[in-house]
Amino acid sequence: MTKSNLSQLMLIKIKYKSVIGLTIPIALFPIDELISAFKDLILILQKVFPLLNDRMMKEKLNELGKHITIENVSSEVIFELIKELFNEIRKHKGLKLIEVDMKNLQLMVKFY
């Protein structure tokens, strides 16, 4: 799927007492670039500080491993999964990610 088929905008709509409304548009392409930039930064830090990275990853995986079993996971794989998840969500144009309707407050997060 090409990038043109992905959602390019996320709208956060907040309405208070059906009188005051606020719509916040968020462009999604900078978030995509930010994920890639963090991945590159982590790869550079792994090369510069290999012992620090190994110790940090081991601590985090041990902490996470209390809940699920993880073997041989690298930070590169983690960022690839995050990017895949983000792009998978963006494939669904018109997706309402959040829709909350309370007495005085309405909140909606939708992809366009």
Structure explained in plain terms:
With 112 residues, this protein is an alpha+beta fold. It contains 3 helices and 4 strands, in the order ββαααββ. Strands 2-1-4-3 form a 4-stranded antiparallel β-sheet. A hairpin with a 3-residue loop joins β3 and β4. It has one domain.
* Overall tally of domains: 1
Q: Give the beta-strand count.
A: 4
Question: Largest beta sheet, briefly?
Answer: 4 strands, antiparallel
- Tally of individual helices: 3
**What is the radius of gyration?**
19 Å
Oligomer: single chain
Query: What is the string of helix and strand elements?
Result: EEHHHEE
**Amino-to-carboxy terminus distance:** 16 Å
Task: Supply the helix-strand structural class.
Answer: alpha+beta
From the spread of the alpha carbons, the general shape counts as elongated
Mean pLDDT: 83
Question: Unreliable segments (pLDDT under 50, ≥5 consecutive)?
Answer: none
Strand order of the largest sheet: 2-1-4-3
Helical content band: 40-55%
Q: Beta-sheet strand percentage?
A: 25-35%
Offer a few descriptive terms.
112 residues; alpha+beta; four-stranded antiparallel sheet; 3 helices; 4 strands
Brief synopsis:
The chain is an alpha+beta fold and 112 residues long. The chain has helices spanning 29-48, 50-65, 75-90, and strands spanning 9-16, 20-27, 96-101, 105-111. The protein has a four-stranded antiparallel sheet with strand order 2-1-4-3.
